[in-house]
Amino acid sequence: METVRAAERALMARLPEGALMQRAAAGLSAACAELLGRVYGSRVVLLIGSGDNGGDALYAGARLARRGAGVTAVLLSPERAHAQGLAALRRAGGVSVAPEAAGDAIGRADLVVDGIVGIGGKGGLRPDAERLVEAVARTRAAVVAVDLPSGVEADSGEVRGAAVRADLTVTFGTYKPGLLVDPAREYAGVVRLVDIGLEPPAEPELEALQHADVARLLPRPAAESDKYRRGVVGVAAGSGRYPGAAVLAVSGALRGGAGAVRYVGPAAEAVIARFPEILVSDRGPAKAGRVQAWVTGPGAGDDAATVAEVLAAEVPVLLDADGLRLADRDAVRGRDAPTLMTPHAGEAAALLGVAREEVEGARLAAVRELAAVYRATVLLKGSTTLVADAAGGAVRVNATGTPWLATAGSGDVLSGLGGSLLAAGLSALDAGSVAAYLHGLAGRFAAQGAPAGAHDVAECVPEAWRDVLED
């Protein structure tokens, strides 16, 4: 967050004193008014800490009070509250109370504005703030967080103890990592960005691809393309116990735009029965024929030899599921061609030798550590999928997913989809990011609010392509 603070200092140096806070307060009050629907006669409670977030909330509260709202500011540290903001609130008819006297006001509130802690907050909330957060959670009031919910760590998306659960977060200038990455993202509710004139950071910590970005990256055949120029992806997956994993990985590869798919493994009969266009080999990956990328691991069981043979190939490799467990770390680290690893939280925890809860609580740190340890690009699956490049730089975050994707075989489809994009020539970072984006959209189209299986998700990948290209 130091880049954000530096940008704010640079902007404040060019503006009249207090102008930046007034811009933030104007955007915040407008969002609060929209959420309330009717401002006149509404009851608004401001939770005020000692930082600039408290000042933003006080000035916004003053604007609402001038429009007829009854506004009460709960001051956690009265002597450190933003003096000018508090004076503005009182001139507009607002009142202030101590935390111990705030229970009745909070209980009757239509709207609570969280201005307790800003982007510098670390290590959880103090006990007096925790008590206020608990009181707010017991009400039916709508909750608006200023910049980010208090208790959420802006840099990492980690939540240490109690935190405000907002219906709406109004953030200023730029999105903070904690608003995009779980577990913090679920505390933010709907996020609205207010432009206050900040220059975007030259080197962001996170990036989120949009439709236009994905459309630019999607491989499309040219007039002279043939099945080989479009990319051939090899799939070494499945076993006698898990033949369906091979079928689903192949389906993801076909719908990911591959010109051809070569399959190697014990599930050839099941694969051919479903997809007669697949090229099948029983001679192992090294003798299966030319490919531009390999996918290995889904449903592989204990077939470490095949995984090792794929890792020895001099083409990009996507490593998933059982392949993550079977792969030799040094073999992955020593590869010259790109490697894309696609673990979920449990698999990532096993690779790092930590508890699953540790990965789930610090997803951004975990994906960066895995990428560094394995010298590979890592796609950490979850409600917000993260993709970290082996070379470092900004982590890509994808939020197109849906909880309906938490179904058996969904990851196998994602593996095939990612492998086809690698075979088409995308970098591991772009292949992982685009695959996650399309996979999430496909999951939404397949579910439409109702249960959907992995096969349904694969069938909807072409619809996701069309949605991106036609936008």
Tell me about this structure.
This is Bifunctional NAD(P)H-hydrate repair enzyme. AMP binds at residues 381-385, 411. This protein has helices at residues 2-14, 19-36, 52-66, 83-91, 103-108, 127-137, 185-188, 211-217, 243-255, 268-274, 304-311, 322-326, 329-333, 345-352, 356-361, 363-374, 410-423, 428-447, 454-459, 461-470; strands spanning 43-48, 70-75, 95-97, 111-115, 142-146, 168-172, 190-194, 206-207, 232-236, 260-264, 279-281, 293-296, 317-319, 339-341, 377-380, 385-388, 395-398. With 471 residues, the chain is α/β, with parallel strands linked by helices. Strand 15 (377-380) and strand 16 form a beta hairpin. Helix 2 crosses helix 3.
Summarize the structure.
With 471 residues, the chain is of the alpha/beta class. The protein contains 20 helices and 17 strands. It is 42% helix and 15% strand.
